[in-house]
Amino acid sequence: MIFVFEVHIHPGHSAEAYADAWVRASEIIQRAPGARGTRLHRKIGDANVLLAIASWESKTARDAMEASPSETVQKILQGQAPFVDIRVIGEFDDPDWVVEA
Q: Does the model's pTM come out above 0.90?
């Protein structure tokens, strides 16, 4: 499954600073059972809007990580909270099949 959210960087702050925090937190989160990687994308035409995608083996695995969050990850995220607005887009199942052209 994937967990998707949008990050809006406040004026006067940078996407690069958020990306640095993202990498530090992701390195820890990816040690959790069922973690399959993360991606952070910058919106074309608006460098202060990012799309975050975290891939998990299952919703159960992600929920387990959320139920026992790392103190270090919490500190990293709290450090960025004043500078960003987060909008959760949702949780999505892996497709049963993929069509590529």
A: no
